[in-house]
Amino acid sequence: MPYLVSTATAVDTEYLDDQRSQLDLAVRMTIVSMIATVLTSIFMARHGLWLLVTLLPYASCYVSYRGAVVAASEYGRALGVVLTLNRFALYERLQLERPLSTDAERVQNEKLMHFLSHGPTRGLSLSYRNQPPPG
To answer: What is the mean pLDDT of the chain?
Structure first.
């Protein structure tokens, strides 16, 4: 993803950052509510019906958790959008030939992922565009 995000448009990266921020907020709210639930139940355990106060942070924890699940789904969708819309920009930036079909793209991407994670190796060949250097 770091390679794709670096070639993405400002609108795409802003959308991705917004989704990540929403996920972060929902997860933090879930954790804080969970801690509040535990602390409230510990402090109210000896006070009879006042223990029902524990239901307030518990409800907040439940709602925050559900929100975190939705936010995680949206963040995953945002990653998919960035991948789908900006993969050709990555090919351009790496000076790779554009694949002619989805099958050719899968083969090229397997080689590309190996190249990006392990560096150039023997027997691995990517086809570059024959283009003069910029400038």
So the answer is: 87
